[in-house]
Amino acid sequence: MMDRPLFLVGCGKMGSAMLEGWLEMGMSPEHIHIIEPSALITEELRDRGLGAVTALSDLPADLNPEIVLFAVKPQSMDQAVSAFAEYHLPNTTFLSIAAGKTISYFENILGAKTAIVRSMPNTPAAVRHGITVAMPSGNVTESQRKICSTLLEAVGEVAWVDDEELIDAVTALSGGGPAYVFLLTECMVQAGIDAGLPAELSSQLARVTVSGAGELMRQSDETPSTLRENVTSPGGTTAEALKVLMANDAWQSLMTRAISAAAARSKELAG
Q1: Are 32 and 147 contained in the same domain?
Q2: Closest to 101 in 3D by CA, of 171, 34, 11, 12
């Protein structure tokens, strides 16, 4: 897939999910160089036989990476990216999975001719069921784009957009989406308790129902609307519940407002 090394900058939850996905897909550990400021995490990685250092300066200057993937928090990005500004890496693709950092942000630090891919994954990447939306800069070649797709597909599905403005809506929908599903599950658990179920059983029923419904939807070719209709018998118990949930378009209106608020905040963070 790659002739030259891969640098992973940051090995927190999302970075480690990416790393595990690459190793599972057969990438050689010797091909991956991890830069992780936490000495504790670096030591744990070394104990596993992985090449990890706490700073870019600890790596040989002639490694010439094919891909540099930034997986640090947005507030740590300035320091992480600036470390590469001193190096001349014209054939390197810089791939970011950080929220709020635009392509122009990276170009301002690394140079206008740098190949940049901005992407937004989500937390189900930890179990290889995430989805990542990516946006290439004008300097990214088709071969560079394919390599980035392969790396991102190690933790789930990948979609590409050609309009960076869409990333804010992506962040709001799929980036934050798992939290909305978890909130739904919380509400179902409490509703079950209020209906008389023991807390442990209510939690089990809600968690398995939500995860099972998600897997059914993932494997099905039918639309969510059709799947909902398939579960809803006319005049039955589910129909009664949906009368409440769908009354006056309340649930859709609430979700639309939530996504809009998150997208607006994403624009603010991008500056």
Answers
A1: yes
A2: 171
Distances (CA, A) of 39 to 45, 46, 106: 10, 10, 26
What total of structural domains would you count in the chain? 2
Domain of 231? 177-270
- What SS3 class is residue 117? strand
CATH code, domain carrying 113: 3.40.50.720
Instruction: Indicate the SS3 state at residue 186.
Output: helix
Residue 175: strand, helix, or coil: helix
pLDDT tens-digit map of 67-113? 999 999 888 899 999 999 988 888 999 999 988 899 999 999 999 99
Helix (H, G, I), strand (E, B) or coil at 99: coil
**Residue 126 corresponds to which tokens in the numbers above?**
């930890």
* Residues 142 and 20 reside in one and the same domain: yes
